[in-house]
Design goal:
Elements (H helix, E strand, L loop, with lengths): L1 H14 L11 H15 L31 E5 L1 H10 L10 H4 L9 H6 L6 H5 L5 E14 L11 E16 L5 E13 L8 E14 L6 H6 L12 H63 L6 H23 L23 H12 L7 E5 L12 H11 L1 H22 L4 E14 L16 H7 L2 E11 L5 H68 L5 H35 L3 H5 L1 E4 L5 H14 L80 E4 L7
Parallel strand pairs: 1-6, 9-10
Antiparallel strand pairs: 2-3, 3-4, 4-5, 5-7, 7-8
């Protein structure tokens, strides 16, 4: 038993790569092993063929609380400038999360539509490649030395010595209706020792044309527009399906651009609020510092009103406001306003400080994160009431939301896939026609000196056209049961039903979010007016408390409380102003007009000159005749291009608004002519600078973002 155990132990050690346990390892061998393990286990970095240029290393030290905050160089930027910079510098649609680090493959870039269109597997060009002409050629030579049992098969000999060469060349082309055309040449040379040969070696050259016309499966333009070259149910590579996938990617790109601009606007107003909140807290701190100094002076003189508890209370409030100032200046690592947080476009949070919010604006706009300057918003938020007409808003949301257009393209793709699945149910029935010219000779091109004149050369004999053959026939292939094709149809029907149901649920969700945004405008405006009255009351209270304290008619704790209330009311006022602006913005977002609201236009890249020339040359061929021939089936339309608003009803056949023309303004004031402005308080006891009058609108026509064309240099 022990003997067997030792053998098992030895085998396990050798199989695991360990040394024999009774052999001593030298110190040199041990050091080499440690060095080898260290080298083999370290992390390696790739050596790029083209190193990526980066300007990240040139960023200066970021601004912080311990930096030089008195000599900052401010850079005033409008919201229009921020959007313009963001679109100019953004090949990647940035967000305020860490998606680009955690899942970089899921990040949306400006190259995505072009990548989708040029996909060599499922792109448009890949689908069109099924109709490319193809050339194939081959040359094979063999030397045979064999013994044969039957003299007949050896041409009169049982020991066959042979040299044979076969050369083939073929050009094939498939038409749009599925017809395959072939033209090929087969030339072979055969030299052997058969006694019955007319020549020791002879050439045979054949030129043949072949046409294969599918009659059931594979027939028609619609088949190749949907099924394509793939003959597997569930995998469809037709041109129309490839095009719908490209349109889906373009809709997704537009959604990403819209979300990116919403992120830009969120970060801009976060920075605006951070400055206003900082000013309010600085003013409250300075006022509390002034009160503390007065109480400390009274305490030093031993006079009434400067008791130690009152001085300590004023000192505590000063440091509380100082803490608020530090947090409002730098900010904490918390989430600010961002998309799909509360609402699709994002709800206002206002939880970040000036420095943090400024760096977020820089990141989203593609600017250097630190360059020694401080961005400061120059635009003022909207301060006038905006009233939306519900029927118009509802109609626009169901027409212009890119998510619905993307899902409609998905439905169109599933409809085409169902057609393709039905096409694959048909059996294969092909008509084959072939015509062949033959040539035979002792040589291929040059006549021999003593050969027969009729067969001097194979190509010369081929040119006479004396030997011609033809073939006409049918091929049938019927899979019994056809389970895969039946499963493909059922799967396509379920996919189509699912995509239609998803569209209905998307409409319901859009209606839900639109209703929330619609009512949020009224709530935010009423709250804004209420907070304005609260701010006015807090201002009157602090003025009264300060006057009463100076007249020795109010205790200091009431003055401190009034200061806190005023500082809180002022921050709440700016928060309410931005809440209202976000609510108006969110209505445009939910009804699908946010890009127009921002003056941004998304389009495909410009055509090249070759594309323009090609379109001009083939435009007459693409025009349909007024009365097409009866046998010509019109092509399958998947889109009629851009449709004016109110004219397209792809999914609202039974909608109560169907057919009702609505020509109502998007926005209007209560009197229909002018905006009722909501000014800020005229006086400020805490020395907070007054902003300029609110801007009731925004400048249209800011920027145009072009997706790169599919042909990238």
């Amino acid at each position: 038993m022990g003997y067997a155990l030792r053998w098992v132990l030895a085998f396990s050690l050798f199989s695991s790569g360990c040394q024999w346990p009774f052999q001593a390892r030298s110190p040199v061998a041990q050091s080499d092993a440690v060095h080898y393990q260290a080298i083999s286990s370290r992390i390696e970095y790739p050596q790029l063929d083209q190193p990526i240029e980066s300007d990240a290393i040139f960023n200066v030290q970021p601004v912080s609380l311990n930096g030089d905050l008195e000599n900052l160089n401010y850079w005033n930027l409008s919201l229009q400038d921020v959007v313009q910079l963001g679109l100019e510098h953004s090949k990647v649609m940035r967000n305020l999360g860490t998606t680009i680090l955690r899942t970089p493959d899921s990040a949306t870039t400006a190259f995505d539509p072009a990548i989708r269109e040029t996909d060599p597997r499922f792109g448009v060009q890949a689908a069109l490649s099924a109709f490319d002409a193809s050339f194939a050629a081959s040359v094979f030579h063999q030397n045979n030395d064999r013994a044969l049992n039957n003299q007949f098969f050896g041409g009169g000999t049982r020991l066959l010595l042979q040299e044979a060469t076969v050369m083939q060349g073929q050009i094939s082309k498939r038409s749009a209706s599925g017809t395959e055309f072939f033209i090929r040449n087969i030339t072979d040379y055969d030299k052997n020792n058969a006694p019955g040969n007319a020549f020791p070696g002879a050439w045979t050259s054949v030129v043949e044309t072949e046409m294969r016309q599918p009659l059931l499966r594979g027939y028609g333009v619609e088949y190749w527009q949907t099924v394509g070259a793939s003959e597997t149910p569930g995998v469809y590579t037709g041109v129309l399906i490839a095009r719908t996938q490209t349109d889906i990617s373009q809709s997704q790109f537009e959604i990403s651009v819209r979300d990116f601009i919403a992120e830009l606007e969120n970060s801009y107003w976060d920075l605006y609020y951070a400055y206003q909140d900082l000013d309010a807290k600085v003013a409250a701190r300075d006022a509390s510092l002034e009160l503390w100094r007065r109480l400390d002076a009274l305490n030093q003189l031993g006079r009434a009103g400067g008791e130690a508890d009152k001085e300590a209370q004023a000192r505590e409030q000063y440091f509380r406001f100082e803490e608020d100032v530090q947090n409002a200046l730098n900010g904490k690592p918390v989430d600010g306003s961002k998309t799909y947080n509360g609402t699709s476009a994002g709800a206002f949070k206002g939880t970040v400080g000036v420095l943090t919010a400024e760096r977020r604006v820089r990141y989203l706009t593609g600017l250097p994160i630190n360059d020694g300057r401080m961005i400061r918003p120059s635009d003022e938020p909207l301060g006038a009431p905006v009233i939306f007409h519900w029927e118009t808003v509802l109609e626009e949301s169901l027409q212009h939301r890119p998510e619905l257009r993307r899902q409609q393209w998905v439905i169109k793709q599933k409809e085409l896939e169902l057609i393709a699945a039905q096409k694959l149910m048909l059996p294969e029935l092909d008509m084959v026609a072939l015509y062949r010219w033959r040539g035979f000779g002792e040589t291929l091109t040059n006549p021999s000196d003593g050969g027969a004149p009729q067969f001097d050369s194979a190509w010369g004999d081929l040119a006479t056209g004396k030997f011609q053959e033809w073939q006409l026939g049918m091929e049938l292939n019927v899979p019994l049961g056809n389970r895969r094709a039946h499963a493909g149809i059922r799967n396509a029907e379920f996919q189509l039903a699912r995509s239609r149901q998803v569209l209905r649920e998307q409409e319901r969700l859009i209606l839900h979010d639109l209703s929330n945004s619609y009512s949020e405008v009224d709530r935010a405006w009423n709250v804004l007016k209420t907070v304005k009255h609260r701010l006015q009351a807090a201002e009157d209270q602090v003025n009264a408390m300060v006057a009463a304290f100076e007249a020795d008619q109010a205790p200091v704790n009431l003055v401190l409380e009034a200061q806190r209330r005023y500082a809180s009311a002022r921050s709440a006022y700016y928060s309410a102003v931005l809440d209202y602006n976000f609510a108006v913005r969110n209505v445009h977002f939910e009804k699908g007009t946010y890009l127009d609201y921002c003056g941004v236009h998304v389009s495909e890249g410009d055509w090249s000159e070759e594309a323009h020339e090609h379109a001009a040359r083939f435009a007459p061929r693409n025009r349909y005749r007024e009365t097409p021939p009866a046998l010509v089936k019109p092509p399958h339309f998947i889109s009629t291009g851009e449709t004016p608003a109110g004219d397209q009803r792809l999914y609202m056949d039974n909608h109560p608004l169907n057919g009702v023309p609505l020509d109502l303004p998007h926005e209007k004031t209560p009197d229909g002519n002018s905006y009722e402005e909501l000014p800020l308080p005229s006086s400020d006891p805490l020395m907070v600078p007054q902003p300029e009058a609110p801007n009731p609108g925004r400048d249209p026509g800011r920027a145009t973002l072009h997706a790169p064309p599919a042909t990238i240099p």
